[in-house]
Prior knowledge:
Blueprint: E1 2-10, H1 15-26, E2 32-37, E3 41-43, E4 54-63, H2 67-80, E5 96-102, E6 107-108, E7 113-114, H3 123-132, E8 137-138, E9 142-143, H4 144-149, E10 156-158
Antiparallel strand pairs: 1-4, 1-5, 2-4, 3-4, 3-10, 6-7, 8-9
Amino acid sequence: MSVAYVGVGGNRENPRKVVSAAIDALGRCEGMTLAARSSLYSSAPQDYLDQEDFVNAVARVETSLKPVEVLDTLQTLEARMGRRRDGPRFGPRLIDLDLLLYDDLRCCSERLELPHPRMHRRRFVLQPLVEIDPDAEIPGKGRADTLLAACASQRVTRIDVVDD
């Protein structure tokens, strides 16, 4: 079995509920078992700023799938949940599932880059990752907790979950 980390986020249509449902659904995907989930975090948008704050989390899954098969599974789940890819890049979205890490694999292809190419600069990824794996290492970049310190100025707040 391999270990993969999945970034989960969204900022439309009750994002707390959608992000939580997506994490639950990961555990029901064939070839994947949900091993850990972070708290939910509210984060300011980056890159495309004219939109609502995001809700983000990270899930750790154990999987028998190959990396590209995990990617296919994540994209199928996004589509099933109603994700449309017709808006601006980094713009508002119902759900976004990103394969962040797969074991200690480093790869770069047209479809998949591991580790995720921007994760080491994003507090909304690093903070929940460090929450569920304090010793997480990002291949080629370093320890996630060290990288997190460099992102301290980014606004990310842990959400105390209350039933909506």
